[in-house]
Specification:
With about 300 residues, the chain is mainly alpha-helical. It has 2 domains: about 80 residues, no CATH class; about 160 residues, Intergrase catalytic core (hpI Integrase, Chain A), CATH 1.10.443.10. It has 14 helices and 5 strands. The longest helix has 18 residues.
Amino acid sequence: MRKIRNRTKPTSQLFTEYYTMLSTSRSDQQVYENKRVLEKFRLMIGEFPPTPELAIQFIAQYNKLKTSTRARTLYILKGFYRFSGLGEITLTIKEPNRLPQYVKREDIEQLLNALRSKKSHKGCSERDILLIKTAFMSGLRRGELSNLKVQDIVLKGDESCIMVRSGKGDKDRVVPLYWELREDLVRFIHGKNPDESVFNLAPKSIKVKIQQWAKKAGVPHLHTHSFRHYLATTLFENRANPRDIQRIMGHTSLETTMKYAATSDKGLRDTISLLGGQPEPNPYGIAPLVYDKNHMPSWQDKQGKA
């Protein structure tokens, strides 16, 4: 019935109805991301009926972008088409199964040191440093950092935590506070109102600021999500329970969490060492593989003859 009714509706009305549905069932960040993509699509088609063929043409414009970006765009369009009953978009985009970024603590420290030496207002400098520390010690996404309010920081000694409200998937979760971060947050939020924003920055502002800071600090590969990568990988390297990591990160699927286990080979090296025993002597008297100046491998015996 919806499909039949929508045939007679103007294109603008279809988008308006979908946005209304999103605003009642999705988080503000999700609504923003959906509208950002759909408004570009709406601009392309004008008042033409949004057919599946037009959706595929729209996706084709993004061929030079990352596969993950194209897949996310297609996912948003399919949601709009399902709701409006406009037909099925048969296009599929398979995302490559890539490992998360491996982030070194030294790079984060380099970024923090650059912020400490930055000539700016004392309050801004303190906020910026705490923003980074909160990101890599709690794993909060940039939208979650932006939405964090003073009342969401629960201070109960060793049981202190951050209440993440309306995270990805519109889910709440609890993240325990690391003692060092707890002490910094206590000082920073002292005297603030409970409903006041902790960092008072929009998600896009956080993204841009971290990009700028990282570039100036000489670690341009760091971005907002790098800090989540660091936390999950570090917890795995220190033998944390995967289910606990999943809850802290706010992953719906344990499969997503387990990708971080493969980022570092520490666990693999520890596992292979369980074979035990000592290396066997080389029965052929052949030295290890060496490389000449042209980087071509050559085998050498004890007499140095190839």
